[in-house]
Every structure is written in structure tokens, then in C-alpha cells.
Amino acid sequence: MAAIQGQCARPNIRSKAFLRDACFAGARRSTVQRRGSLQVFNASGKALRDRINSVKNTQKITDAMKLVAAAKVRRAQDAVVNGRPFSENLVKVLFGVNQRLRVEDVDSPLVQIRPVKTVLLAVITGDRGLCGGYNNQVIKKAEVRHAELKKLGLDGKIVLIGKKGITYFNRRTNKYDIVGRFELGQAPTTKEAQAIADALYSEFVGLDCDKVELVYTKFVSLISSDPIIQTLLPLTPQGEICDIDGTCVDAADDEIFKLTTKGGSLSMEREKVKTDTSDFDSSLIFEQDPVQIIDALLPLYLNSTLLRALQESLACELAARMNAMSNASDNAKDLKKRLNLKYNRQRQAAITGQIIEICSGSSA
Fold first, then answer.
1. How many CB atoms lie within 10 A of CB 245?
2. Beta strand 155-161 with 118-124: parallel, antiparallel or unpaired?
3. 228-243 per-position pLDDT tens digit
4. What φ, ψ does residue 323 adopt, rounded to 5°?
5. Mean of the pLDDT values across residues 253-265?
6. What are the residue ranges of helices labelled H in the chain?
7. Which of 131, 209, 248, 316 is catalytic?
8. In the 8-state DSSP scheme, what is residue 175?
């Protein structure tokens, strides 16, 4: 070590580069570690005041963005509630007609099960950022599922819904086969869901894929959401929703979320909704063949399921943005408190020094 120090004082030409790194590596590390504190706590009084004002303005912006996200979550909640009557009646008719067809096979392209060679992944992400790890979680889930399909020897295609997913996968077109791109928007409508459903329908019916899986985020609470994979096509005649493990849930078993306030803070409640799926009156006569009715209802049910997934993904994105902005506001508040404390200490030290100078001058 003494030899290195001596060479640092008198370096020769051959070892100049090595000695420069050896002599100043420790100084670089300590400089990087102290850089944040030097920028803030060794600043002048005016610089500290400017930084405090900047943090205050940032906190106002994040608070406003949190309130905007909360208002949008309420609108997403209202959209789900307003769509309930149509979904309930659709499920009732679907179950009722199926009770008449217990022994008959439904000849519909949407329920056709065939050997899987190609799987189409419909990936739903957000259109905007500043929502924590919401978009990254969905993208990673899609990438993991695509890798699993490759290991099984299956081909994978991707339909992208949301600007963030489009931006990410557009940079990796050499690895992924992208067959469609759609924007999510701030208020998903039936028209947008219909356009996406038509694209998925054409891929499945045209035999370009044998299975369609939906990758989206299931809303759990304001602080929790889970990226899941749900089998969208082929449908079951009973309208069941199945995950990739084969676990199916009746369409009659649904739940809605409600944004409420408890103890002065926002909270989320989930309400289980059970749709009445009793049999039709035995005297009811179908004007058309029940199989034709089922064939007409299944596309409507596909659109309804896709619209619900879009609405739930949007609610997850907004809830994640609320949390991100809330954390940013808390961090800004903490930083402002520490800066004010440092500024007051610095100002008090300056005043104390001036008083000492005055006392020293008067005694002299």
C-alpha cells in the first residue's frame, strides 16, 4: 500500500492508467455516495428555499393526480355496474337454453375444440405510465407464458391492447409474432370491445390459432392486483370461464367492486353477485332452433367477457396510479420536512454567528 501511495505521488508513464484508477477509486465511490447529501444539505439558503418550493409544487401535482385517478376509478366502477343488467340477462338466457340442449351438441365455431398447435395471447396493458409496476407485471406475465408455449413446442401469437404493451413489444418484433394492436383508452366501450373481439374471432375461426388466452390484471383491492391468464376461446356452451389450469367458474358467479371511504381514506369493497339461472318455463316454445340461439348468443357473451376484462384492467391501472401518486406525495412531504429542518438549522447558525460577531466587537 505504501508503494502504491508513493507511486501515486510520483507516477511513471507506464503505470499511469493503473495508478490513476488505484489512487482515485475510493475517492470516486465516496463522492457518489455523498453526492445526494452534498447537493441538498451543503447548499446555500437560497438554494434550499428553491428546493423546498420545488418539492411543494411536486407534491401539489401528485396530490392532484391521485384525486383524478380516484375519480376515474369511480367512473370505471359505474361502467361495470351499468353493464350488469345486460350481462345478467345474457347469462340467464344462455343457461336457460342450455337446459334444453343437455343431450345435443352445439355446432358453433366458438366452442370447437381441436388439437392445439398455435396459441394467441391477447395482452391488456395501460396507455399511460406513472402507475408503479402495473404494466411491467402484465408484460412479464405474457413473456413467461410465451416462453412456456415455446418449451411445449407450440407457436405463439400476440394481440396487443394498450400503448405501453405496443411500445414494448414493437421493439422486439424479432422475438414475437404480433398480429394486432389496439389502444385501450380511458373509458372502454362496447364498440372497442367489439373491434378486439372481431380480430380474435377471425383468428380462431380462420384456423390461424387453436386457442385464445387473455392476459390481463384482475382487480383485487386498491393496493393489490394479480396478472392472470384466462382461456377466452374456445368457449363452453354453458358460458363458463376457465383459466389455463382448467379451473372453470360459472358465468353466473360474478362480483363487482365499489370505491368507498372508511376512516377518511379510500377503500375498495367487492360484492359477490349471484345471477338467477333457473330453468325456463316448460311451456316456453322457441321460435328458432335452440342451437341457432346459442350460436347467436356466444359472440355476445364473448364481447361481454372481453369488455369486462378491459374495464377491470383499467380499474387496476387507475388504482396503481393512485398508489404511486400517494407514495410520491408522502415522499415529497418527508423530503420537504427534512429540507425545512436543514434550512432552519442553517439560518439559526447564521444568526448565532452574527450575534457572536456583534458581542465580540462590542467587548473589543
1. 8
2. parallel
3. 888 888 876 554 554 4
4. -65, -40
5. 52
6. 2-9, 16-41, 45-82, 84-100, 134-151, 163-170, 190-205, 290-363
7. 131
8. T
